[in-house]
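Re-run with default settings, no changes from the original entry. Doing this only to confirm the output is reproducible before filing.
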Amino acid sequence: MLTKGDDFPLHQTAEPIAYAGTDRNFYDRYFFNGYNRDGSGFFALAFGVYPHLDIADAGFSFITNGIQHNLHASRELGMERMDMAVGPIRIEVIEPLARLRIRVDGEGIRADITFTGRAFPIEEPRFTFRNGPRTFMDYTRMTQNGHYVGWIEVDGERTELAPGCAGTRDRSWGVRPIGAPDAQPHAGSAQPAFFWQWTPVNLERRSLFFHLNAHRSGTAWNTRAVIAPDGAAHDGFFETPAAQLEPKIEPGTRWPAGGTLTIQTGNRPLEVTFEPIQRFQMRGLGYTCPRWGHGRYHGPLVVERDRIDLAAVDPLAPSMENLHVQILSRITTSDGEQGLGTFEQLVLGPYDPWGLTGYADVPAIR
């Protein structure tokens, strides 16, 4: 089947764009988050396309007065990957790799927001992870910090994004678990475990990025830190795998409560300190959400709104839906810069360095 994308020089194989190899778990996703300079007005969006499930879905969230308002939408894709709207949520690429627009209008939640990048996007090391012979993840991600202008409205109450509103956006594509879980167990596999940390930071004159995927033993299988000066081109970044994040953990949870990132820069180590301001529950965008998990089939078009009282969340709910969080944090560096950033963390199952043996226990560190 030919689609709009086939009229652009985007092909990677001899097949039409509608087909993306043979893995049913292939996906293509956008993510955005943003916040004002004073730490208010946190919002986030996720938008995913799943070509071999023939589904597209999206979520938009905004926090106000301790409540996280979430708008979810899902539709049948119809094999048309260039239609970047799911019900009331739409993305427009104004200038590739530089400017994008978000529009939302449904269920009492509206927004019109434009993102402008601070530097060329970074390309992270390819994420490839296998459980024995089975490919669990194999994807590429690009990440970019930037500034936002626009507004968000919830039930008629409009919030204008303040000057200097900043945040992060990423694009990832490849293979990761999506849709209904695989009913076929992997013979002989150990107890599943997943460890992830990600800290995109907006400083006054530059952006910092760090991520870590680790085995149960604590050994990294994908990690890197990047320093990106404003206006940097694709070859203007400092990159190193020599970085370490020492987190604090909120008691009784698996949520981060700040910490210190140390990046070895070749001259003297750069220390980056995180001080928590606001918690965001990633299930509001579908991540680890039992109902709105990415790639789930809901019908031709389904739109739904819900809310999360952030003070009432059970951090160790049996569904594990509350483990995945982003913590908006105030940032200070050892060389005198300040800013804001997010500390994202998801720890599923055992993790030996923290003394975790299952899914409901909490780290021994504080």
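The longest strand covers residues 134-154. The two ends are 55 Å apart (CA to CA).
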